[in-house]
Amino acid sequence: MLAMVRFRLPAASGETAGPAARLVTEFAAGAERALAALGQAAGYRSGRLARAMDDPAEWVLVTEWDGPGAWRRALGRFDVKLELTPLLVHAVDVPGAFEVLVGQDSPAAAPRRHGSALAPDAATAAPGR
């Protein structure tokens, strides 16, 4: 599964000094520490921090996991909470957990389908219903 956390930061607009530039530098360093902490969790496969090329204020932290359980357990780790939580002040509230339905691991490989693990009532079932 893919876990994606989107962030919106004040754009530094090419600045190399000033508050916005410092915020970007501190945010990137914090994301690096968060990735290092996430990388110690069972079920972690890979992770990346990326910045939008068309809008430098938009960022995304993308991690790949063995499944949703591994991702959720990782979020409960003390070191992950310590490093990831300060970044969440910049998080954008959008869906962030995605199951991979088709994947291609190399240019020479054929795309491969993966079955869905979602229950038929996943979008409607909730505690107490």
From TrEMBL:
Transmembrane segments: none annotated. InterPro entries: Dimeric_a/b-barrel (IPR011008). Residues 108-129 are annotated as: Disordered. Keywords: Monooxygenase, Oxidoreductase. GO terms for molecular function: monooxygenase activity. Residues 117-129 have a biased composition (Low complexity). This is Antibiotic biosynthesis monooxygenase. It comes from Frankia nepalensis.
